[in-house]
Design goal:
Elements lengths: L3 E8 L2 E4 L12 E10 L2 E2 L2 H15 L7 H15 L3 E10 L8 E7 L6 H6 L1 E7 L12 H14 L3 E5 L4 E5 L3 E6 L2 E4 L9 H13 L3 E3 L2 E2 L8 E6 L3 E8 L2 E2 L5 H24 L7
Parallel strand pairs: 7-8, 7-15, 11-12
Antiparallel strand pairs: 1-2, 1-6, 3-4, 3-5, 5-6, 8-9, 9-13, 10-11, 10-14, 14-15, 15-16
Helix pairs in contact: 5-6
Length: about 280
Amino acid sequence: MKDFTGNFCVVNGKVEHTDILNSLSLSALSVCYEVIRVDEGIFLFLEDHLSRFRDSVQTIRNNYNIDFKYIIDALLKLKKSNDLRSGNIKLLIAFHPQSVRDPIFIAIQSLHRYPTEIQYSEGVRTSLFMEERERPNIKYLNSSLQEKCRNEIISRNVYEILLVDHNGYLTEGSKSNIFFIRGESLYTAPAHRVLKGITREKIVEICRESGYPLIEENISVNSLNQYKAAFLSGTSPKILPVASIDTLSFSIEDPLMSNIKAGYEALIGNYKTRIRQTDYGIDSL
């Protein structure tokens, strides 16, 4: 495990120095994970993340029940021990294949790469990559695919790799969802074909409440020139304009994209206000 930072982690409910992670090997285990952003000491959209974590786990072990209080206690221990006010936290639960042994539960402060102000204002470069997830709705550890995508991002010098399936349909980014804009409508891949990101779900909510047309359909790579704008969504990038996909350029100034970005920031602000008023997820359950 190399994608962590901070001096302390939580392993099976106990605060440990991160040195312990160097001795843990999860490669032979079935691992579900979740990444939660911490902003001003608040776990953003915590309930949504825990619900998705539960759904991923029950897909792998349908008789295993997630104890939300146990997880929240681990999150609070991790935040306090690392004095964490801003950053990302990763939850992992690792099951031994064909075994009734208790799983390993880990909470760590994970490395993250937030976009710069320039990237938000000028958009980011992306590139198509012929690859697809076997179980897109589950957030599980797939080290081989993740390593492939990391290598492609580095070798192509882009911010994100966009996955394309065997039928030539663009599905999602390696660590983000993607939306396109044509006319006054928003387009994205069908929910059952991608990881239903928490930010993605918030965008769906914004569109429903604001009346913005949202169309979920297969998006062919041959039709990308029909869209005027595109953006990535995710825990780390939030709403991030796409300047280009390989040699194809997109507008980074679009009213619909600006409205969705403003709506998402408003959701974050409202959530933080509610959490501060209840102290939930800050100092106590």
